[in-house]
Structure to design on (518 residues):
C-alpha cells in the first residue's frame, strides 16, 4: 500500500547510514547473560482495539505477530486511568493511594525506590526515547542513563470551528502539512532513535523504554491511516457501546453535555472510533519498524525480551464519550494490551487470568536477577511467560478520581493553563471536574466480577460472565447482594493491607550531635 513507501525509504536510508559507519558487536561483559529489555508503551491504547485481543477488522499485524511468538495477557489492567498516576504505579509497584501519586504533576521522587533505578544501579544501561509523565526532575537521571524527548503524531487541524458543536470532540483531521508521510512524527523519531541505539554497539545489558504519544487524542493520523477504516465498518462489525445506560455514573451523561456532543448522531461517534483505530494501526506500524531494527541484529535479539503495553485506554466513541475521565473505571479505560516475547519463552500463549500492569516492570527485575528491597505489590509474570496459566483467583485493582482542591487538574498551578483557555480541548473536562465533581473511585476486578466503589456518586458491579461489555450495573440488585458484600469486604482488607509502606532506610533513635559540639 502507498502508506509504506516513504517510511520504508527512510528505513533503508537509516540502515545504509548506520552500516557505512561501521557497526560493531554489542559490548557485554564476559559471563553476563542477563537479558536486554525493550518496552514499547504507546499512550492511550486500549486492548480491545487490537487484533490479538479479538477486534474483528483492525489491522495490527506487528502486534499480532508478537502475540503469536510470545504471550498475550488478556486481562491486563492499569492502576489508574490517567497518564502520570498510572506510570508512577507501574514503575514503583505501589498503588496510587500509597504515596499519593494521584495527579499528573506529582511524580516519582528521588527518594522513592523504582524498578528502573534498581536495574540501572545493577549495571543496566537505561535508554529512554519519548514522553515522561513518570519521574520528577531530580529522580529522572537517577533511573535513566540517556534520553531524548521526541513525541507526537500529526493530527491535523480541528475540523469543527470554535463555538460549534463538535469542537470539543477531539477529532483531528487529515494533516495538510504532513500528508501521507508516516515518518513525520515525533513518535516515529523516537523509534529511529531507538533503532540507532541498538545498531550502534549499545552497552549491554540494556533497557530500551519507548513511551510515545501513541493513540492519544486528538484523533488523527497520516492520510492513509486516517482513512483506513469507515464508520460503516464500526457500525456493522464492531458496534460501540450505547449512551444513556441506566445506573451509570454521572459523568456518562454530563461529559457529553460539557463537550457539546449531544446533538450528534451515532455516525459521529462511529467516525471517531474509525479514526482512533487508524491511529492504533499507525502505532502498530511504528512498532513493526522497531521490530525490524532488533531482528536485524540476531546477536542482540537472541537475548532481548520485547514487551508492549499502555498506560490506559480511551473511550473513542463508546457510550458517546471521547478521550478519558479521571474517575472512570470502565473496562475500555483500565484494560490495556500486555504482550511479551522473551528469550526461551513460550509462543502463542494466552493468559486469561487478571494481572496489573506494574507486574511487568517488576518482572524485568526478576529476569535480571536484581534484588528489590522496597515493599511493593507487583507479582512476577515470568511463570506465565514460560507457559503458566496464571492465577484465576486473583483480584486486580485500579483507582481514580479526586477529593481535595489541589487534586483537581484545573486547580493545579502546573496544569491551569491547559484548562483556563476555552479553545483548548481539555477546557470542558476541567470545568466538569470542578463544577460537577469527579468522585474518588476504586475498582476490584476478578475473573468473574467487577466492583467499582465510590464513597460519593454511583458505585458499580458487573457480572462478567453475562455482561462482558459492562452494560448492566447490578450494584443495587438484591440478587447480587452476597457478591457485593464479599467484594466490599475484600476491598476493605486490601486497603488496610496496602494503606502505607515502611521505608527501606532506617533511622537511629538517638539524638544527633548537639550544635554547640560542632
Amino acid at each position: 500500500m502507498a502508506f509504506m513507501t516513504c517510511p520504508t525509504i527512510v528505513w533503508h536510508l537509516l540502515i545504509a547510514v548506520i552500516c557505512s559507519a561501521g557497526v560493531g558487536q554489542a559490548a557485554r561483559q564476559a559471563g553476563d547473560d542477563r537479558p536486554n529489555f525493550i518496552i514499547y508503551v504507546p499512550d492511550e491504547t486500549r486492548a480491545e482495539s487490537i487484533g490479538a485481543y479479538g477486534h474483528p477488522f483492525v489491522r495490527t499485524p506487528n502486534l499480532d505477530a508478537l502475540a503469536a511468538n510470545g504471550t498475550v495477557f488478556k486481562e491486563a489492567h492499569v492502576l489508574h486511568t490517567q497518564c502520570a498516576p498510572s506510570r508512577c504505579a507501574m514503575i514503583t509497584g505501589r498503588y496510587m493511594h500509597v504515596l499519593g501519586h494521584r495527579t499528573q504533576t506529582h511524580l516519582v521522587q528521588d527518594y522513592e525506590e523504582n524498578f528502573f533505578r534498581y536495574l540501572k544501579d545493577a549495571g543496566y544501561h537505561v535508554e529512554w526515547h519519548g514522553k515522561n509523565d513518570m519521574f520528577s526532575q531530580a529522580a529522572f537521571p537517577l533511573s535513566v542513563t540517556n534520553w531524548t524527548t521526541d513525541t507526537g503524531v500529526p493530527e491535523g487541524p480541528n475540523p469543527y470551528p470554535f463555538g460549534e458543536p463538535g469542537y470539543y470532540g477531539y477529532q483531528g483531521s487529515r494533516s495538510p502539512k504532513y500528508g501521507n508521510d508516516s515518518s513525520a512524527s515525533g513518535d516515529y523519531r523516537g523509534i529511529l532513535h531507538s533503532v540507532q541505539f541498538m545498531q550502534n554497539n549499545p552497552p549491554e545489558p540494556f533497557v530500551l523504554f519507548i513511551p510515545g504519544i501513541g493513540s492519544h487524542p486528538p484523533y488523527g493520523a497520516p492520510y492513509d491511516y486516517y482513512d483506513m477504516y469507515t464508520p460503516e465498518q464500526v457500525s456493522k462489525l464492531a458496534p460501540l457501546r450505547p449512551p444513556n445506560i441506566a445506573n451509570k455514573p454521572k459523568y456518562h451523561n454530563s461529559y457529553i453535555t460539557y463537550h457539546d456532543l449531544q446533538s450528534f448522531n451515532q455516525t459521529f461517534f462511529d467516525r471517531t472510533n474509525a479514526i482512533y483505530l487508524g491511529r492504533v494501526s499507525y502505532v502498530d506500524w511504528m512498532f513493526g519498524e522497531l521490530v525490524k531494527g532488533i531482528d536485524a541484529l540476531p546477536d542482540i535479539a537472541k537475548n532481548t525480551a520485547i514487551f508492549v503495553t499502555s498506560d490506559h485506554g480511551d473511550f473513542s466513541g463508546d457510550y458517546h464519550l471521547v478521550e478519558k475521565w479521571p474517575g472512570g473505571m470502565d473496562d475500555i479505560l483500565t484494560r490495556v494490551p500486555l504482550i511479551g516475547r522473551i528469550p526461551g519463552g513460550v509462543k502463542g500463549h494466552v493468559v486469561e487470568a487478571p494481572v496489573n500492569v506494574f507486574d511487568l516492570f517488576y518482572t524485568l527485575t526478576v529476569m535480571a536477577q536484581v534484588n528489590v528491597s522496597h515493599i511493593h505489590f507487583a507479582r512476577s509474570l515470568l511463570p506465565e511467560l514460560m507457559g503458566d496459566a496464571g492465577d484465576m483467583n486473583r483480584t486486580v485493582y485500579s483507582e481514580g478520581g479526586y477529593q481535595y482542591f489541589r487534586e483537581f487538574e484545573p486547580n493545579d498551578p502546573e496544569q491551569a493553563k491547559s484548562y483556563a483557555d476555552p479553545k483548548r480541548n481539555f477546557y470542558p473536562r476541567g470545568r466538569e471536574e470542578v463544577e460537577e465533581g469527579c468522585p474518588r473511585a476504586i475498582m476490584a476486578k476478578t475473573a468473574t466480577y467487577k466492583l467499582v466503589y465510590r464513597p460519593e456518586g454511583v458505585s458499580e458491579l458487573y457480572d462478567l460472565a453475562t455482561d462482558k461489555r459492562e452494560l448492566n450495573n447490578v450494584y443495587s440488585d438484591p440478587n447480587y447482594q452476597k457478591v457485593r458484600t464479599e467484594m466490599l469486604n475484600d476491598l476493605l482488607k486490601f486497603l488496610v493491607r496496602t494503606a502505607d509502606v515502611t521505608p527501606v532506610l532506617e533511622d537511629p533513635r538517638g539524638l544527633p550531635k548537639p550544635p554547640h559540639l560542632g
Observations:
- The first strand starts at residue 36 and ends at 40.
- The chain is about 30% helix and 10% strand.
